[in-house]
Amino acid sequence: MHAEARAADAVLDALTGFALDAPVDAAARDRARIALADTLVAMCSGRVLLPGAAAGRFAASRPALQSGSGATELALGRTVSAADAAFCGGMLAHADETDDSHENARLHPGCAIVPAALAAAEQHDRSVIETLDAIVVGYDVAVAINLATWSDPEKLRTAKISTHHIGGLFGALAAVVRLQRPSPDEAAAAFSYAVQHAGGSTTWLRDVDHIEKSVVFGGLPARSAVFCAELAALGFTGVPDPFAGNPSFFSIFSGDSAPERIADRLSRPGLALRESTTKRYPAGMPIQAVCEAIDGLLADELHGVPAGSIRSVLIELPLEKAHIVDNSAMDDVNCQLVAALQLATGRVDFATLHSLAAKPDAVAALRKRVDLIGTAELDKRNNGHGTTRIARVTVDSDRGVARRTVVPPIGCPERPFAWADLRAKAREVLESVGLSAADVDAALQLLETPNIGAASARELMRAVWRGTARLKCPSNPERNE
C-alpha cells in the first residue's frame, strides 16, 4: 500500500500516525500503569472461574514455544504464540466483571488492549514503559473508533453490533502497532485487515457462563489485533481506503458515523484513560453505584440490622441501564443478587460473589424482597450529573426507611483510583482466591514507580506468573446456580 494511495483516507492516516508516533506524557503513563495493574488483577483472578478453565483448555491445545520466542499466557503459564497468548489473556481479563469500562464509548477497553499489548511486548522484547505507552494509544483509538462510528449516543447505547468487540479490536491493534514498530504502509495494512475482523453481536447478553462474553469482549479482539499485525509484517497488502471508500467500515457498521471525530479525539493523547472507570466491586458497571450506596447504608442507618429485619429493598437505576443487570443469568451482572448478598453478609467481594465461599441461605431469602426499576429520572440526559453511573437504594427495615443515592461511584473519572486504591483492590481480589499479601506485592512490584523503568514486559509476565502459579486453573468446575 503506497503512501499516495493512503492519502485518500484521512482516518487511516490518523490512526496509523497516532499509533506509531503519538507523544505520551507522564500523567497518561501513570493512568496506564493503573489500567495495566488492574487488568492483570482481573487476569489472575479470572483463572479460577469458568472462562479461566476454558482459556486453560485452549492454552493446553496450543503448541508450546521456547521461552523468549513467543509470549506468556497466564492460564497455565506456558509460552505460546503471541496471538494465542493474547486470546487467553483477553478471556482471563474478562472472566468476570472485575475489569475496567468506558461509559461513553460502551466498551471494556482493558480486557482487549492490555493482553494484546503484553503479548506483543513480549514478542518484540519491549519494556514495561513502552507497553504503557502502547496502552495509552490503544485506549484512545478504541474510544475514538466507537464514538466516530456511532455519533448518536442513543444509537451507540442500543447498537446490536458488539461495540465492546469493535472498539477493543482497533484499540488492541493500535497498541500492537506501537510495539511492533512497522512501517506506515504495514501499519495501514494491519488496520485494513482489522476492518475485516470487526464484528460481534450483542447475543452475548444471553450468555450464562460468561465464557462467550469473555471471548467477545477480550479474547477475540486481542487475538485478531496480533494476527492482523502479523499479516502486515509478512507483506500482506490491504485496501487503501477501508474507512472512506464505498462501501467503507463506517457505512457498513453504522449509518450515523462522524469520521471527523477520530482526529479530534486523537489530538489529546491519554484522554480515554482519564475517562475510563476502574471498578471498586467485582460486578457489572451499572451495579457499582448500588454497591457503594449499600456500603454507606450498612455503615450508618443499617449498621447492625440483620437481613431478616429487612422488609423490602428498592433499587433505582437509569432506565437506559437497568435492563442489563435486571436478574441477569450471570451472578456478577445480577443486581438483585449482588444487593442481597451485600445486605446479608455485609460485603460483596470476589470470593463470595463467585461462590468460592458458600452463599448464606439469608441471601436467597432476601433476594426475593429486592426490586429493581429503571427510571427516566435517572437517565443521563435528565439526572443533572451527565452520567449513567448513578443509583438510588431504599431499604425498609424494622428500623425504618433508609435511602442513599450515589453518583458517581469511586473509580469513575470524577473520583479516579490512585495507586493505593489499586493496590487495595488487588489485595482484596487476589487474597480471596488464595494468594497472600506478599504474593500480591511481588506481582505488583515491577509496576511500582521506582522499578518500572528497568523492567521488560517479559520480566513482568514471569513475575506475575510466579506470584499466581499455585492457583489451580479448574478443568471442569461446576457453574454456580
Number of β-strand runs: 6
Mean pLDDT: 92
Largest sheet: number of strands, sense, barrel closure? 4 strands, mixed
Pick out the low-confidence regions.
Answer: 1-8, 475-481
Helix/sheet category: alpha+beta
Number of helices: 22
**Rg value:** 22 Å
Please state roughly what percent of the residues sit in beta strands, choosing from under 5%, 5-15%, 15-25%, 25-35%, 35-45% or over 45%: 5-15%
**Order of adjacent strands in the largest pleated sheet:** 4-3-5-6
Tell me the span between the first and last alpha carbons: 53 Å
C-alpha geometry: globular
What's the helix-strand series? HHHHEEHHHHHHHHHHHEHHHHEEEHHH
- Helix coverage percent: 40-55%
Provide a compact summary of the structure.
This protein is α+β, with helices and mostly antiparallel strands. It has helices spanning 3-6, 10-21, 26-45, 50-61, 82-93, 109-123, 128-149, 153-158, 163-180, 184-197, 211-233, 249-253, 260-266, 271-275, 288-299, 319-322, 335-345, 350-353, 361-367, 419-432, 437-444, 457-468, and strands spanning 71-72, 79-80, 310-318, 370-375, 391-397, 400-406.
Entry keywords:
disordered C terminus; 6 strands; 4-stranded mixed β-sheet; 22 helices; two-stranded antiparallel sheet; single chain; globular
Notes on the structure:
This protein is α+β, with helices and mostly antiparallel strands. Helices cover 51% and strands 7% of the residues. It has 22 helices and 6 strands. The strands form 2 sheets. Strands 4-3-5-6 form a 4-stranded mixed sheet. Strands 1-2 form a two-stranded antiparallel sheet. A hairpin with a 2-residue loop joins β5 (391-397) and β6. α3 (26-45) packs parallel to α20, α6 (109-123) packs across α7 and α7 runs antiparallel to α13. The longest helix has 23 residues, at 211-233. The radius of gyration is 22 Å and the shape is globular. The N and C termini lie far apart (53 Å). 58% of the residues are buried. Mean pLDDT is 92; it is low at 1-8 and 475-481.
